UniProtKB/TrEMBL annotation:
It comes from the Eukaryota. Transmembrane segments: none annotated. One of its GO terms (cellular component) is cytoplasm. Keywords: Flavoprotein, FMN, Oxidoreductase. Pfam families: FMN_dh. The active site is at 265 (proton acceptor). It comes from Smittium megazygosporum. Glyoxylate binds at residues 25, 135, 170, 263, 265, 268. This is Oxidase FUB9. SUPFAM superfamilies: FMN-linked oxidoreductases (SSF51395). Belongs to the FMN-dependent alpha-hydroxy acid dehydrogenase family. One of its GO terms (molecular function) is oxidoreductase activity. PANTHER family: 2-HYDROXYACID OXIDASE 1, S -2-HYDROXY-ACID OXIDASE-RELATED.
Length: 375
């Protein structure tokens, strides 16, 4: 096999080799997957406007947020059930992120526990760049317990996912209902006893286990007051994930969110929602620098991250590339994936004439649709 040179190569490898149950779950989007594809394609509608003769002998890729410094503005997004990709699952991913000094965000519905992930992130609490993604359960005590466990384990932020009152309609999952493999458990929420009750839905009717799990456990009645509520039960910064409009960005400010992740859940929730790179500018404008804005969805190359930063993101997250790297070779595979994207990002900075991330701004980007409309 040829050497892996890009995230696309890792994705091709996974698509050719991963078992159907896991591949359908990881790769699918909702309905006709228009948003899923547009997340990726939209980056190509923007071009980088490079500047020359700017001394790029040293390129500094570091960024800061919430008092933490990261070596690159490219983080790992929360994605569920990573042990389907590799037996080390989330532990391999967090070890790799930790080694590269970037943020790893852990899903509520992970196959490694909060405590295991914290331990894998190393011994030194200050060095743990781990953020916890939260789904709010119908049972408020369960939700508070998750937050408290994350705090005790040294997680540095809570990411409240706001776009998933119900699971999106994912057609591959309807055609061939997804099953969590019987040897795996949702480690954060299953005690042995609850585990039996919650996994008992596995073998019943012919419908997605995950969609049923959400219907039975996750609260679809959330409102902006729940942001206030989460803020009242934790001292950690709270980010709202799943914002795509200026209106909601302003509500984030009004209700005291500490950060925003512009996201459409990797095209897995509302199909035909805008690509995240297209939604980013209106959110950035509405926030006007008051809190950091992050983006995920479709980031596959260093140039994609550069474009998001030029449009005002503090950093980006990648979801599926982490899973493809993990499947390729566990921790080494995630290392390979991050090394590729980081090298691409650093080179994009150098070839654009940016010696520091602080130099990247709107003057480095053009939207091809606006150029054509002026002709
Ligand atoms: C297999 C998979 C599982 C995911 N699980 C979660 C999750 O548990 N919680 C969450 O907030 N987002 C989840 N996401 C969404 C990601 O956090 C992120 O928004 C998305 O993957 C970004 O798009 P990308 O895959 O194109 O990078 C998941 C995404 C995928 C692909």
């Amino acid at each position: 096999m040829s050497k892996i040179a890009s995230v696309q190569d890792l994705e091709d490898h996974a698509k050719a080799n991963l078992d159907k149950n896991a591949l359908n779950y990881y790769s699918s989007g909702s309905q006709d997957m228009i948003t899923l594809q547009d997340n990726v394609n939209a980056f190509d509608r923007y071009q980088i406007r490079p500047r020359v003769l700017r001394n790029v002998s040293n390129v500094d890729t570091k960024v800061s947020a919430f008092g933490l410094t990261f070596d690159y503005p490219i983080f790992i997004a929360a994605s569920a059930m990573q042990k389907m990709a590799h037996p080390d699952g989330e532990l391999a991913s967090v070890r790799s992120a930790n080694k590269h000094n970037v943020c790893y965000s852990l899903s509520t519905i992970s196959t490694s526990s909060i405590e295991e992930v914290s331990e894998a992130a190393g011994q030194v609490t200050d060095n743990k760049k781990i953020w916890f993604q939260l789904y709010i359960y119908n049972d408020k005590h369960k939700t508070i317990d998750l937050i408290k466990r994350a705090e005790r384990a040294g997680f540095k932020a809570i990411i409240l996912t706001a776009d998933t009152p119900y699971i999106g309609r994912r057609l591959p999952d309807i055609r061939d209902p997804f099953m969590i493999p019987s040897h795996l458990k949702l480690k954060n929420i299953q005690t042995e006893k609850i585990g039996e009750a919650e996994t008992s839905t596995q073998s019943s009717e012919n419908a997605s286990w995950l969609a049923r799990y959400f219907k039975e456990n996750i609260n679809p009645g959330l409102t902006w007051d729940d942001v206030t509520w989460i803020k009242s039960v934790t001292s950690l910064p709270v980010l709202v994930k799943g914002v795509l409009t200026a209106e909601d960005a302003k509500l984030c400010l009004q209700y005291g969110a500490d950060g925003i992740i512009v996201s459409n859940h990797g095209g897995r929730q509302l199909d035909t929602a805008p690509a995240t790179i297209d939604a980013l500018p209106e959110v950035v404008r509405a926030v006007n620098g008051k809190i950091p804005v992050f983006l995920d969805g479709g980031v596959r190359r260093g140039t994609d991250a550069f474009k998001a930063l030029a449009l005002g993101a503090t950093a980006v997250f990648m979801g599926r590339p982490n899973l493809w790297g993990l499947f390729y070779d566990g921790e080494n595979g995630v290392d390979l994936m991050l090394d590729i994207v980081f090298e691409e990002f650093k080179l994009a900075m150098a070839l654009s004439g940016c010696a520091s991330v602080k130099d990247i701004n709107e003057s480095y980007i053009q939207d091809s649709r606006h150029i054509f409309s002026k002709l």
